[in-house]
Amino acid sequence: MDSAETIFGSHRANWEAWNPYVVIRHGIMSDDTPFQNLAKFIQTKFPNAIIDNQPYPWTDSVVLNGARLARALQTSHVADERPLVFVGHSMGGLVCRVANLLLREPGVISGNRQIFQNYCDDDRNAFTTLLGLGLQRYPPMRVHLLVTIGTPNSGAMLKAQLGALADVLGKVISVKFPSLKDLNTARLFRLLQYFAVDTPTLSISGSGWNRFKKSSAPPVFWVPNAAASFSLPNDMIVEDRSVDLSQSILPNEVLSHPAAKYLHLRAYRDCTDVIHSTMYNHLEVRNLLIDCMARV
Known about the structure:
There is one protein chain. With 296 residues, the protein is of the alpha/beta class. It has one domain: Alpha/Beta hydrolase fold, catalytic domain (Rossmann fold, 3-Layer(aba) Sandwich). Helix content is 36%, strand content 12%. The protein has helices at 2-8, 36-45, 62-74, 77-80, 91-104, 108-111, 113-119, 124-132, 157-164, 166-169, 178-184, 187-192, 240-243, 283-293; strands at 21-25, 50-53, 84-89, 145-149, 201-205, 221-223, 228-230, 262-266. The strands form two sheets. The chain has a six-stranded parallel β-sheet, with helices on both faces. Strands 6-7 form a two-stranded antiparallel ribbon. The longest helix is centred in the first third of the chain and has 14 residues, at 91-104.
């Protein structure tokens, strides 16, 4: 944990007595049910904490879900009185990133209409909905810690690269939901690059550095006459490079701030026996989360 201490400092005295409001948000095609054990685990480590583990309409865009989360926290007197911690798995980490930005800078949508209109270019009603939430009417809220677990901070590389290979494979990957468009294109990340916040942030990966490239490992599939074989990321979904904000394809709202404290950790050195959809239940991942919460 030397790297965590270097970035976030030593454990606080009597850290078990801390009383944060912990928001847990699931990823795509999921809900709150699989995260009940994680919520109980955090509660045992921080008995005075309040755990907010709720489902959200994951088919909607990341920005819309992040804005709804920010609005709910703005109007929660309980959350307003406690240190706020975000814990997001996979796409839920992106939702938390957006909510974090909007809480720290509540006037960001009304003050940057063109940027958000560009994001909503294929659905003008979405921009009207965002603006109608009235986030700018509330004062900024401090977020004490943002933790993303297996989050595709540079996009779901596997899906994006499969899309790029569509001609070779003779297949077309259709985007059916706004949330999938956020994961498979750069529209979300191009939006986030314009803003900066100083929230302490930890990203946890369960996958190796892969970039879905030519590999000496046994191929998942091979393309005739393409002289290439392709291997999946170790966690089967998201590559380490995409989880790590310091490897982001585009500048982002965390590392763009000169005062932001950021650390990326891989849960397993050799990345074996890791499954993206359940990595938040692994003790190694949970211990990294609790250790960081005890420091900020």
